[in-house]
């Protein structure tokens, strides 16, 4: 997969000059965070002031593995462990608040899962993909998006269902949605469109391809939500 960059015509698509970015150089994302440093623009300063308590908590509870004292490999596990703890707690709070909001406005939980939760859990993947793409590693961004979705479907669904089934062997795990079959069909269709788009673009990443994929995501999400909202039929199963 190649990145189209008019400024680097004739150069390797997977490499960028050391003066721009590389994994050996310390770019802006690789520098340790200074929690007391104010950003430059006014908008960033406003967001910084609002999120300062969160920054402060993370600063004192999550060790910054980018510092020279954390270069040895085993110490990275402490940063990874604390990040996992915060992700678990914040994910629980996010799901809890979304369920209450959906219950208040009469929105199916599946619609919230297809929109709010899907977007919220994908933000870290978007940020990591942007970072690696800026470093000229387009193939890593594609692998990240595909691998994370495979992990989400097979592990993040399979493992909780297995634990729930083992806790009560006589009580199966119920899915309160008959439209999930059509949602899976839409998902498989997007996979086919994804492969076809890359074949047409000759495995090159470009703005046009990005716009096409973004449009496909909007269409697929809209169709899936319409199924869950019973626009195309009666698919929702009553909870009581």
Average pLDDT reading = 78
Number of strands: 2
What is the terminal-to-terminal distance? 50 Å
Tally the helices. 7
Task: Determine the fraction of residues in helical runs and give it as a percent range.
Answer: 55-70%
Domain count, please report it. 3
Report the structural category. mainly alpha
Outline type: globular
Describe what you observe in this structure.
The structure is a single chain. This protein is mainly alpha-helical and 240 residues long. It has 3 domains: 38-106, no CATH class; 108-172, no CATH class; 175-239. The protein has helices spanning 42-61, 76-105, 109-134, 138-154, 158-167, 180-200, 207-228, and strands at 2-3, 204-205. The longest helix is centred in the middle third of the chain and has 30 residues, at 76-105. One of its GO terms (biological process) is intracellular calcium ion homeostasis. Its main location: membrane. It is a multi-pass membrane protein. One of its GO terms (cellular component) is plasma membrane.
What's the layout of helices and strands?
Layout: E1 2-3, H1 42-61, H2 76-105, H3 109-134, H4 138-154, H5 158-167, H6 180-200, E2 204-205, H7 207-228
Parallel strand pairs: 1-2
In short:
It is found in: Membrane. The chain is mainly alpha-helical.
Task: Write out key terms for the chains shown.
mainly alpha, single chain, globular, 7 helices, 240 residues, 3 domains, two-stranded parallel sheet, 2 strands
